[in-house]
Write a structure and sequence with these properties.
The chain has about 250 residues and is mainly alpha-helical. The chain contains 5 helices and 3 strands, in the order αααββαβα. A 3-stranded mixed beta sheet has the order 2-1-3. The protein is rod-shaped and about 130 Å long.
């Protein structure tokens, strides 16, 4: 085996680890914002229900005040009944009173609707107020956990980056350039040869070249995709080794 092969295999593992850690670190701010947005949405809905409840209560007071004005008007009309001089005027006054009483019934129906709406709003407000502290506590806890996770991942990434620098220094400059160029172009730089095929591009190796990969100490690359190859013994190869006859 080429002396750089084991090192670039580990280098690739370290690069993958760095990539995974970086991805996890990068999404944490969005996760924190999502948690904060959930709390803000909860608070917004809570305030909206409180505002709607206050508006509902004001509308009910206004409607009740309107009923009192109409009742006062009806009372004046009733007093005026004793002052009218003709039956026609009397009937007209009664018709006006009936119209005002109909208005009162209509307003009372609206008040009942407002009361039903207020009952539901009061439930929302009460339940949200009871949950408010626990929601704030939950968000604070989850944010802290994410911050701890980010710090842990950043520490682990720094250690991996230190290890990567050490591995990069441990291989020849030529091998490192080949590794990094292949990694950039292919996404994976070092792959196994399994059952005679490159695990990167899945192209079957020529028999002679396959034997070279198995036995050579040279750093070999796939003739199809250019990835650095290493031999991984398969069950078929093991069986073949087991049945080999020694003379």
């Amino acid at each position: 085996m080429h002396p750089d092969l084991a090192t670039v295999k580990e280098l690739q593992d370290v690069d993958r680890k760095i990539g995974e850690l970086t991805s996890r670190i990068q999404v944490i701010p969005a996760q924190i914002k999502q948690i904060e947005d959930q709390l803000n949405e909860f608070l917004r809905a809570h305030e909206e229900h409180k505002t709607r409840l206050a508006s509902n209560q004001k509308e009910r007071r206004d409607l009740e005040g309107e009923i009192q004005l109409i009742k006062a008007k009806i009372a004046r009309h009733r007093d005026q009944l004793y002052e009218v001089k003709t039956n026609e005027a009397y009937r007209t006054m009664l018709h006006e009173i009936e119209g005002e009483e109909a208005k009162i019934r209509s307003i009372e129906d609206r008040i009942l609707e407002k009361m039903s709406e207020a009952e539901q709003l009061e439930k929302y407000v009460h339940d949200a107020a009871a949950r408010l502290d626990s929601e704030r506590s939950r968000v604070a806890t989850e944010k802290k956990e994410l911050e701890v996770e980010r710090q842990r991942d950043e520490d682990e990434r720094r250690q991996a980056e230190d290890r990567r620098r050490a591995l990069g220094a441990a291989v020849s400059e030529l091998t490192l350039r080949l590794y990094e160029k292949t990694l950039k172009s292919r996404g994976t730089a070092v792959v196994a040869v399994v059952d005679g095929s490159c695990a990167g591009c899945h192209v079957k190796l020529r028999p002679q070249f396959y034997n070279e990969v198995r036995s050579s100490d040279a750093l070999l690359t796939c003739e199809s995709c250019g990835r650095i190859l290493y031999y991984l013994e398969s069950p078929v190869d093991k069986a073949a080794e087991g049945t080999r006859v020694v003379i």
